[in-house]
């Protein structure tokens, strides 16, 4: 609103300054017996002080005060017109006091009014019997009364506006705190439900898998090893679940929670019983943004999980290679996760997820960073996921081979 009112304020002040210049210069010559040049200079200085006060309140007030005091000393006493303070000077003073008080400089306005009042009293007392005392006293009373009322009301208005601004700011802070509290409560509720539903089930799986070797001593060693690996995977999942629950329960720990990156890929691939055929050069991995590294990790994690669910027992390979830079495009990272067909004696452990959150979630994560992802059946009955991610988020990259329009959901 201030920006919209500013042109109107400048326009009104300019009109008032021009009107005061014309009227004050004419009255100074015709009524108060001032020379033409001096009357014009004093009127121009008064108008200039009013305009200067719009941008520099104290400087404008100082210029106007000097002009009014100069007019008091040069004007000739008159019994028919207001004296010693002219009406035009009074109007210029009141307008300037408003501007100064709105900027919080009310003490300067009070000092100016007091200085002009003292000077006007001295001029009036020196006039002797030239002008009756009643009109001069009335003129001084009007000056001091209007100045006090103007400064007081303007200061009160400024205080009310400041109080309203502080109240609005406090209300905004209160609303933000309330929103943060509601978010924290919702995150705590989600964490509690995840602990009750998921963590408890994972704990049961881990305990049963870890104790299978001892509860069933007659099982084959290979089967016992499978149970041990299942227990290790469950323990790792429980650790990640506890970290996630800690992030959800923390008020501001989400941004600072450690996230997996390229350095965690070998452990993930080994835990999934896959093979990591190629890795990125250390220099390229160090340049890769942590958000992109997390995307690589999640793509590999989801792809290996899909292979374990839909092609149990099949071999899987993971390869990471630098993507050669195209013209004016920085280098990216190509991630390929490929699994073969499941053995003939194995069956699919789980039906495809109808929600399609696996491949769809991977594609949304990758494309949000500017990359691309394709998921297609490979020759021989296997499946291949290819993702191209940039080094820095936001760089648009495109896969060199077309993406199949018909992709299974995982």
TrEMBL record:
It is an enzyme of class 2 (transferase). CDD domains: HATPase_UhpB-NarQ-NarX-like (cd16917). Residues 186-251 form the Signal transduction histidine kinase subgroup 3 dimerisation and phosphoacceptor domain. Keywords: ATP-binding, Kinase, Membrane, Nucleotide-binding, Phosphoprotein, Transferase, Transmembrane, Transmembrane helix, Two-component regulatory system. One of its GO terms (molecular function) is kinase activity. It catalyses: ATP + protein L-histidine = ADP + protein N-phospho-L-histidine. It holds the Pfam family HATPase_c. Residues 294-391 form the Histidine kinase/HSP90-like ATPase domain. SUPFAM superfamilies: ATPase domain of HSP90 chaperone/DNA topoisomerase II/histidine kinase (SSF55874). The chain crosses the membrane at residues 59-75, 81-99, 106-124, 136-157. Its EC number is 2.7.13.3. The keyword Repressor does not apply. It comes from the Bacteria. PANTHER family: NITRATE/NITRITE SENSOR PROTEIN NARX-RELATED, NITRATE_NITRITE SENSOR PROTEIN NARQ. This is histidine kinase. It comes from Leucobacter chromiireducens subsp. chromiireducens.
């Amino acid at each position: 609103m201030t920006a919209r009112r500013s042109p109107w304020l400048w326009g009104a002040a300019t009109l008032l300054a021009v009107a005061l210049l014309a009227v004050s210069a004419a009255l100074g010559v015709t009524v108060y017996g001032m020379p033409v040049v001096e009357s014009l200079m004093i009127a121009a200085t008064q108008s200039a002080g009013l305009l200067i006060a719009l941008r520099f309140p104290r400087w404008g007030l100082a210029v106007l005060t000097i002009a009014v005091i100069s007019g008091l000393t040069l004007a000739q006493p008159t019994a028919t017109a207001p004296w010693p303070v002219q009406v035009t000077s009074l109007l210029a003073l009141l307008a300037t006091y408003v501007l100064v008080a709105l900027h919080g400089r009310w003490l300067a306005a009070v000092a100016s009014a007091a200085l002009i009042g003292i000077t006007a009293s001295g001029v009036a007392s020196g006039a002797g019997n030239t002008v009756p005392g009643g009109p001069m006293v009335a003129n001084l009373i009007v000056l001091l009364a209007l100045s006090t009322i103007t400064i007081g009301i303007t200061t009160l208005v400024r205080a009310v506006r400041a109080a309203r601004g502080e109240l609005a700011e406090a209300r905004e802070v209160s609303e933000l705190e309330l929103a943060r509290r509601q978010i924290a409560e919702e995150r705590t509720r989600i964490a509690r439900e995840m602990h009750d539903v998921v963590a408890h089930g994972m704990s049961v799986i881990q305990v049963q898998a870890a104790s299978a070797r001892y509860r069933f001593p007659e099982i084959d060693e290979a089967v016992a090893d499978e149970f041990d690996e299942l227990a290790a995977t469950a323990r790792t999942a429980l650790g990640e679940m506890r970290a996630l629950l800690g992030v959800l329960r923390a008020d501001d720990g989400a941004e600072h929670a450690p996230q997996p990156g390229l350095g965690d890929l070998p452990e993930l691939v080994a835990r999934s019983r896959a093979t990591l055929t190629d890795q990125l050069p250390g220099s390229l991995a160090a340049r890769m943004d942590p958000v992109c590294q997390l995307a690589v990790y999640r793509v590999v994690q989801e792809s290996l999980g899909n292979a374990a669910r839909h092609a149990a027992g099949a071999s899987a390979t993971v390869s990471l290679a630098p993507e050669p830079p195209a013209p004016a495009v920085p280098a990216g990272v190509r991630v390929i996760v490929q699994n073969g067909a499941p053995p003939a004696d194995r069956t699919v452990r789980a039906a495809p997820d109808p929600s399609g959150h696996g491949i769809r979630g991977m594609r949304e994560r990758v494309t949000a960073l500017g990359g691309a992802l394709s998921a297609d059946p490979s020759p021989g009955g296997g499946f291949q996921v290819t993702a191209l991610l940039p080094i820095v988020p936001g760089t648009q990259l495109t896969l060199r081979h077309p993406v199949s329009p018909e992709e299974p959901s995982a």
